[in-house]
Amino acid sequence: MPQRKDHLDTLAVSLLVVCCAFWGFQQILIKFAGREIPPLWQASLRMWGATALLWLWCRGRGVPLFQRDGSLPGGLLVGLLFAAEFVFIYLGLQHTSASRLTVFLYTSPFWVALLLPRFVSAERLRPIQWAGLCLAFAAVAVAFSEAFLHGSTPGQWKGDAMGLAAGLFWGLTTVAIRTTRIATVAAEKSLFYQLGVTAAVTPLLSLALGERWALDYSALAWGSVFLQTAVGAFASYLAWMWMLRHYPATRMATFTFLTPLFALVFGVLLLGEPLTLQLLLALAGVAAGIVLVSRR
C-alpha cells in the first residue's frame, strides 16, 4: 500500500487546480459537441477512446490489468457508479447550462463526507469542516430553486436534477474506491474498471434511446471529443485516481468545488450562458465551504 498523507501538499493542490480548470472546461466541450453528436453516443466515443489509451499506457508501463487479485466485484461496482455519473452528465447538459450542471455535479463532497467516515475513521471531519460542507450544499439548493422561477429555461429543473444525481454517483464512486479491494490496486487498473464498464454501458443506453450513430461530424466536434478523451477521461482521471490513493478523499473532494468557478467563467465567456444572482450566491457559498473544509 502506498504511504498516505493526512493533508494536501503543494503537489496535490497544484494537480487539483489544473484538473479542476479542465473539468470546468470539459462541460463546455460536451455542450459544444452536443450540437452535432447525440449525448450518449458522444459519451461512448469518448469512453472507447479513453479505454484504448489507458490500455496502451498500461502495456507500455507493464501495469497488469487482468491479473486475478480479488478486485473484480469492487471494480464492477465502481464502474457502474462511474457510468451512472456520466450518463446523467451527458443527458443533463441537454436541459441546463454547463455552468449550472457543474455546480450541482460538485455536490459530490457532501455525499463523500456523509458516507466515507462510516467506513474509514481517518476521514472524519471536524465541526467547522461540516459547517463548510453544509454551507456549500445550502448554496447549491439556492441555485436549484431558480429552476422553478418564472423565466427559467423550460425543463431546466430536469438538467439540474440530473446534475445532482451525477454528483451523488460521483460521491458513491469515491466511497466505493476507498472501501473495496479497488483501494489496493494500481490507479491505472482502478480507472480501467471505470472507463471499461462505462464504455460497455453507454452504447447500450444510446441504442435504447434511439440515438443516431454516425461519424460525419465537423472537425471542431471531433476536436472536442478528442480533448474530452485524451485529457479529460484519460490524463486527468488517472491523476485523480493516483491522488485518491495518497491523500484524504474528503479534503480532495471538497477542494474540487473550484471547478464550478471555472465552469462559470468558461460558460459565460464561451457559450454566452446567463449569469444570475442565485448562481453567484451558490458559487460564493461553495467558495466559503472550500475555505472551511480545507482548514487543517
UniProtKB/TrEMBL annotation:
The keyword Nucleus does not apply. GO terms for cellular component: membrane. It is a multi-pass membrane protein. The chain crosses the membrane at residues 12-34, 40-58, 70-91, 97-116, 128-149, 161-179, 191-209, 221-240, 252-271, 277-294. It is found in: Membrane. Its main location: membrane. Coiled coil: none annotated. Keywords: Membrane, Transmembrane, Transmembrane helix. Residues 12-143, 158-294 form the EamA domain. Belongs to the EamA transporter family. This is Multidrug DMT transporter permease. It comes from Tepidimonas fonticaldi.
